[in-house]
Amino acid sequence: MYTLGMEKEHNHSGRPRSEQARAAVLYAVDDLLLEVGYAEMTMKSIAQKAGVSRQTVYRWWSNKAEILFEASATDAEHELAVSPAGSPLEDLTAYLEALIRFLSHSPAGAAYRALLGEAQHDSNVAKLLSSRDPLGDSARVVIERTFGKGLLSVPLDQATALLIGPVFFWVLSGRDPADLIPRELAENFIHEIQSRQSR
After folding, report:
1. Residue 80 CB: number of other CB atoms within 10 A?
2. Number of H helices, E strands in the chain
3. pTM given for the model
């Protein structure tokens, strides 16, 4: 799942962190999620899987949720970045196709769903998820490209919820994503936004 970058990153104390070790941890958390699930994953098992010390892991992250969220959010940015498709309808359809793939088939989407479930009874995970919104950020880019930046009469966050909401609800409630028709969802979204703008 995790997309390896070539740059070295720094932790909060300013120390450079080895990109190789960091990537190993992010890959390890992906593998463990699929192998044992979120509940059984520990910082110790992540370190062992990555071939690094627990001290190394704790130098960069406080808990497993932070590791999983970093891996998931980074990949979401790549997987949900949709190039302009030629028309507003095609653009929104391409984005919704990517969103469905991410939430229902991508390992990064599986990680994101696991964290959403954990956030329902862990306030620290909920706070972590509220610190960065890769789905909302990606949707806002497409919406502003479709309707023009600052030209919506609907608040952008509401428009984002209208675009993401149906797919989000459908997939997270266990329904078959194959029954979703991205073009139809895009048409409904455009119609809803236009009707709200004409009120």
Report:
1. 23
2. 10, 2
3. 0.83
The full set of domains in the chain, from first to last, is 9-67 (1.10.10.60), 71-197 (1.10.357.10)
Taking only the tens of pLDDT, the chain with its 199 residues reads 555 443 334 444 444 458 889 999 999 998 999 899 999 999 999 999 999 999 999 989 999 999 999 999 989 999 999 998 889 999 999 999 999 999 999 989 999 999 999 999 999 999 999 999 999 999 999 999 988 877 677 899 999 999 999 999 999 999 999 999 999 999 999 999 888 766 6
CA dihedral 109, 115, 120, 125 (to 10 degrees): -140
Quickly count: other Cβ atoms within 10 Å of residue 182's Cβ: 18
